[in-house]
Design a protein that fits this description.
heterodimer; A: about 190 residues; alpha/beta; Rossmann fold; 7-stranded parallel β-sheet; two-stranded antiparallel sheet; 6 helices; 9 strands; about 30% helix; about 20% strand; B: about 270 residues; 2 domains; 7-stranded mixed β-sheet; 3-stranded antiparallel β-sheet; 10 helices; 10 strands; about 40% helix
C-alpha cells in the first residue's frame, strides 16, 4: 500500500505481550500514526501509556477527545469509552452501549476509520478471546483498506484472529516478529 | 445504507421540522447511532426512514431518544464523587441555599447519586437539583426513580468507593426486577427539559455538572455550551465535566482553577 495514513491495532487477552515486543522495533520516523485499542479494565488509565512509552522512540499518549491524529504518535484508546475517528482526521469519544461486551470496542474504531481512510488504512487484529474486531475488519475490506491479523498459531488466545480469518478475506497473517518490520515497510512504500 | 450526505439531510429535516439542532454534533458517533436505529427498526429504505421521522411524531421522539446516548450509572467514576463529597459539597454547605444544575441527566442515575451524598451530609433539605435533558422520554423514566435491580451490586460498590459508609440498600426497595429509590431523594430534584444547543441560561448555580455530554459536540458547540455554563455559574461556583472532557481550549479557561486531578473547575475571576 502506498501512502498509508493510519495503522490501527486492536487486541484483547494476550495482546499486551505482543505490543511490548513490536513497539521497540518501530521506526522513530513512521509516516503515519498508530492507534491502539485494547480491552482493559476501567480505572487503570494512566498505566498503559506509561508502560508502552518505555518501549518505543515514538510518542505514546492516551487520546484526548477532538485531538488530531498525527504521524510520530502512538495513540491509546482511553478505557471505558469507544474511540471513533471523524472525517476531518480527529478523534472523538463516545460512551454508548458496550459492543461485543467491550468499551472501547475494536469494531467501532475500525469501522469509523475505514470510512475515513478507505484504501489508506491498515488494521491489525491481535490475540483475544472474543470476536470484537471481526466486523471491523470486514468494514475495512469493504472500504478498500488492508486487513491483517496476528497468526493465530502465535497468539496466546487464538480465538479473535482465528474468527477474523474464518469470516474475512485477510490480506496478511503475521507472526509476532514480522509485525514491526511490516509496519516499518509500510512507511517506506 | 445511510451515507454521510443522507445524515446531513436528516439533520436539516430535524432542524426545519422540529427545531432540534444536531448540526454541531460529532458526526462519527451520530452516524453510528442513526445506522444502528436504521438496522434495529429494519427500515426498508432511506426514503421510508426519512418520511417516518418527518411525519410520525411518535417515531420522531423515538429517533431523538435513540440517536442521543443515554448510558449512565450511579456513582460512575467513584473518585469523582469522592471529591464532590470531600471538597466541593462541604464548601457549598456554607451557603444558606444550594442550587445545582445537572445538565444532560439522562435517566437520572447521577441526580440520585448526588441526592444521596447531600442527604448523608445533611444538606439535601436546603438544596435544589435541576436535572435537565433534551429528551422528555428519559426524564419521565428518571422521575420514576426506578433502576434495574441487577445494577445494584455495581452501584453499591461504586458508592462505597466514593466514600459512602451507609448500607446502600437502605436507599431503595426491591420491586420485582427493579430497585425503587426513596421518594425523599426525589423531592429536591426538578426534572425538566432543556436543550443545551438552543435554550438559554435559566438560573444561577453554585455547581454545574455536565459529564460525558460535551464529547458528542464539535469544538464550536462545546464552546457555546461552556459559555452557557459560565453565564449560569456564580463566582466561586464549580463546574464538573466528564473524565475525558476539558475547558482548556475555551476563551474563559483563565477564570477557572482546576481542583487537582478530577475534572472539576472553580470559577475564580
Amino acid at each position: 500500500m502506498e501512502g498509508c495514513k493510519a495503522f490501527i491495532i486492536g487486541g484483547s487477552a494476550g495482546s499486551l505481550d505482543v505490543l511490548l515486543k513490536v513497539l521497540p522495533v518501530l521506526d522513530a520516523a513512521l509516516r503515519f500514526p498508530i492507534v491502539i485499542v485494547i480491552h482493559r479494565k476501567h480505572g487503570t488509565d494512566s498505566l498503559l501509556p506509561d508502560l508502552l512509552s518505555t518501549r518505543t522512540k515514538l510518542k505514546v499518549k492516551e487520546v484526548d477527545e477532538k485531538e488530531e491524529l498525527k504521524a510520530g504518535f502512538i495513540y491509546i484508546a482511553p478505557s471505558d469509552y469507544h474511540l471513533l475517528i471523524e472525517q476531518d482526521g480527529t478523534f472523538s469519544l463516545d460512551y454508548s452501549e458496550k459492543v461485543n461486551y467491550s468499551r472501547p470496542a475494536i469494531d467501532v474504531t475500525f469501522q469509523t476509520a475505514a470510512e475515513v481512510y478507505r484504501d489508506k488504512l491498515v488494521c491489525l487484529l491481535l490475540s483475544g478471546s472474543n470476536s470484537d474486531g471481526v466486523n471491523g475488519l470486514k468494514s475495512v475490506k469493504e472500504w478498500g483498506g488492508l486487513a491483517a491479523i496476528q497468526d493465530p498459531a502465535t497468539a496466546q488466545v487464538a480465538y479473535m484472529p482465528a474468527q477474523a480469518q474464518l469470516k474475512v478475506a485477510i490480506d496478511r497473517v503475521l507472526k509476532i516478529q514480522q509485525i514491526g518490520e511490516f509496519i516499518n515497510l509500510l512507511s517506506n512504500s | 445504507m445511510v451515507s454521510d450526505e443522507q445524515v446531513e439531510v436528516l439533520l436539516s429535516d430535524l432542524l426545519e421540522q422540529y427545531g432540534y439542532d444536531f448540526t454541531g454534533y460529532s458526526r462519527a458517533s451520530l452516524k453510528r447511532r442513526i445506522l444502528r436505529l436504521y438496522l434495529l427498526d429494519k427500515a426498508v429504505s432511506f426514503g421510508e426512514f426519512r418520511y417516518k421521522i418527518n411525519n410520525d411524531h411518535a417515531y420522531f421522539k423515538r429517533f431523538v431518544e435513540q440517536i442521543t446516548v443515554n448510558v449512565t450509572e450511579m456513582f460512575r467514576d467513584p473518585a469523582f464523587f469522592k471529591k464532590l463529597r470531600d471538597e466541593v459539597l462541604p464548601m457549598l454547605g456554607t451557603y444558606p441555599f444550594i442550587r445545582i444544575w445537572l445538565a444532560g441527566c439522562s435517566t437520572g442515575e447521577e441526580a440520585y447519586s448526588i441526592a444521596i451524598i447531600l442527604k448523608e451530609m445533611n444538606l439535601l433539605h436546603k438544596t435544589l437539583i435541576y436535572a435537565t435533558d433534551l429528551n422528555p422520554a428519559v426524564l419521565e423514566r428518571a422521575a420514576q426513580s426506578m433502576f434495574g435491580l441487577n445494577h445494584m451490586k455495581q452501584y453499591s460498590e461504586n458508592y462505597i468507593l466514593s466514600g459512602g459508609t451507609e448500607d446502600f440498600s437502605k436507599y431503595y426497595t426491591a420491586n420485582y426486577s427493579l430497585a425503587k429509590f426513596d421518594d425523599e431523594l426525589k423531592r429536591k430534584i426538578i426534572f425538566s427539559t432543556h436543550n443545551l444547543v438552543s435554550d438559554h441560561s435559566f438560573n444561577e448555580f453554585q455547581l454545574i455538572l455536565c459529564r460525558n455530554v460535551l464529547i458528542y459536540f464539535d469544538r464550536e458547540l462545546q464552546q457555546k455550551v461552556l459559555n452557557l455554563f459560565d453565564d449560569s455559574l456564580e463566582d466561586l461556583g464549580y463546574l464538573a465535566l466528564g473524565t475525558k472532557e476539558t475547558i482548556s481550549f475555551s476563551e474563559f479557561s483563565k477564570k477557572y482553577k482546576r481542583l487537582d486531578v478530577e475534572k472539576i473547575w472553580r470559577k475564580i475571576g
